[in-house]
């Protein structure tokens, strides 16, 4: 196996470990998984930065310095209100948490409510780790709270039947990352459609100039080697911004 293939395989093992642990792992775990590659500290720092760019959290990692992006005015207003709300929520002692975990496993709603309040701060902390990566902080927090509730309600059904802070944090991270992945996919689809619309518009301009008349969807289908149905879909999306000859070609 060549070095590039070995590196890809080793990096894949790191991301798999992070996925298994709810989107995070320690720097020591990453080093252990990559030990055969014999990377120096600078190279490991670049790998940590790559993992961070993919939404993974590497605890204890030294990342290249990066200027912190500011929140938007809308995000700042939301965070101010969220932090204000947190102050009115009751924090639990370690002893009380263990009792609430046990009660929540039986489905006791009051225990679930108190745990939800207690872990609002944890949701905020995790959400801020994923900020400035395509989703607003309020959306990240919303997804994190959904993950928290799913974890609290679903713990009794989990194989281990345990409720711990680590388990809840994994559920929070998992839900946030799933939302980010979904949005990323939607963004890629949007960019692909935009690219096709631009190509369609350019082709219409080119053919109209060559033929001296408006072109038909059928002609565009042939010219672009694209199914007629797809051409029609793109024209519907474009609406009045693109004009074609709708008369059936003979």
From TrEMBL:
In alphabetical order, the GO MF annotations are: DNA-binding transcription factor activity
BP terms from Gene Ontology: DNA-templated transcription initiation
Q: Which residues fall in a coiled-coil region?
A: 72-99
Q: Which Pfam families match?
A: Sigma70_r3
Q: Which residues form the RNA polymerase sigma-70 domain?
A: 139-152
UniProt cross-references to InterPro entries, sorted A to Z = RNA_pol_sigma70, RNA_pol_sigma70_r3, RNA_pol_sigma_r2, RNA_pol_sigma_r3/r4-like, Sigma-70_RNA_pol_init_factors, WH-like_DNA-bd_sf
Keyword annotations of the record:
Coiled coil
Q: Which Gene3D superfamilies match?
A: 1.20.120.1810, Winged helix-like DNA-binding domain superfamily/Winged helix DNA-binding domain
Name listed for the protein in its UniProt record:
RNA polymerase sigma-70 domain-containing protein
Organism, by scientific name, is: Hominiventricola filiformis
Q: What is the lineage of its organism?
A: Bacteria, Bacillati, Bacillota, Clostridia, Lachnospirales
């Amino acid at each position: 196996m060549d070095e590039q293939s070995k590196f890809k395989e080793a990096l894949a093992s790191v991301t798999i470990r992070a996925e298994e642990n709810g989107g995070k792992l320690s720097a020591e775990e990453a080093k252990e998984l990559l030990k055969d590659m014999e990377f120096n500290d600078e190279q490991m720092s670049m790998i940590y930065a790559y993992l961070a760019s993919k939404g993974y959290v590497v605890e204890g990692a030294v990342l290249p310095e990066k200027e912190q992006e500011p929140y938007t005015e809308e995000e700042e207003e939301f965070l101010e209100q969220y932090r204000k709300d947190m102050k009115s929520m009751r924090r639990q002692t370690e002893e009380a948490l263990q009792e609430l975990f046990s009660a929540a496993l039986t489905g006791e709603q009051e225990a679930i409510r108190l745990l939800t309040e207690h872990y609002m701060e944890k949701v905020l902390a995790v959400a801020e780790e994923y900020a400035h990566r395509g989703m607003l902080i309020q959306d990240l927090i919303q997804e994190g709270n959904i993950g928290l509730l799913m974890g609290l309600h679903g713990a009794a059904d989990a194989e281990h039947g345990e409720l711990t802070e680590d388990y809840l944090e994994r559920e929070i991270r998992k839900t946030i990352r799933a939302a980010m992945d979904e949005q990323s996919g939607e963004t890629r689809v949007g960019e692909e459609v935009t690219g096709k619309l631009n190509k369609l518009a350019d082709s219409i301009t080119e053919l109209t100039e060559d033929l001296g008349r408006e072109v038909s969807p059928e002609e565009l289908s042939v010219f672009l080697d694209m199914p007629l149905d797809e051409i029609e879909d793109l024209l519907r999306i474009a609406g009045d911004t693109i004009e074609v000859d709708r008369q059936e070609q003979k």
